Amino acid sequence: ETQGAGLGPPEHLYPSHRIESMPPLPKKKAAAGGAKGGKKKVAPPKKKQVEKKAEEEETILAKAKRVWASDDKETKKVVIHYGSTYKTAFECREGIVRWTDIDEEYAISFVFAGNFEKRVVANDNVVEAVVDGDETYFVGLDDDNGRYVLHVEEDPEAGLNVKTTAGPIQFATTQTDNVLGTRRKEGCSCLYGNPCADPECCQDWHNRFDVAARNGWKGF
User: Fold this and answer.
1) Quick check: helix, strand or coil at residue 54?
2) Is the pTM of this model over 0.70?
3) N or C: which end of the chain has fewer CB within 10 A?
4) Which of 104, 95, 76 is nearest to 137 (CA)?
């Protein structure tokens, strides 16, 4: 018997496939906060909170450059010792001291040549330092952290910018010049108040400036 125009078998043969209309979904009630999603308005963060968060995210180098770029920052003085003779109070902004100020006072670059190492130590702990080109910032200095001491180690290849003899300090024009005759070779000149220039004859090369100072050296 022919079924009706290709519409499939009679409906009574497959009752489970019968499509019934679904009841309508219930409408959502509007939230108490208003018709648009019911979200409460959040007040924008206060200015001080924004500034505090930005300050926390700021890098150490960026902070150092910022506090030293402005003249409005409150400053204080922190004493940094060098050798057994020198102790100068340097300007300190938010715990940061510039190498430029230390070098200008102690003339380190005048004495040491090349890529010499410099560090500030407090209670055997090296103070953190960040470098920006020719400038170095020492970070976290505070009077409560103890006694600050500057340590300098010369570049083993470049050495010093000055050459010393048994008498007054003289300056050499080249690396091979002997100033005022033959250099002292027979003993340690630090014991006579003049820092050695030759590690082979020095009794305490790494502490030669301290030894010379204890024996009358007045510094450069």
Assistant:
1) helix
2) no
3) N
4) 95
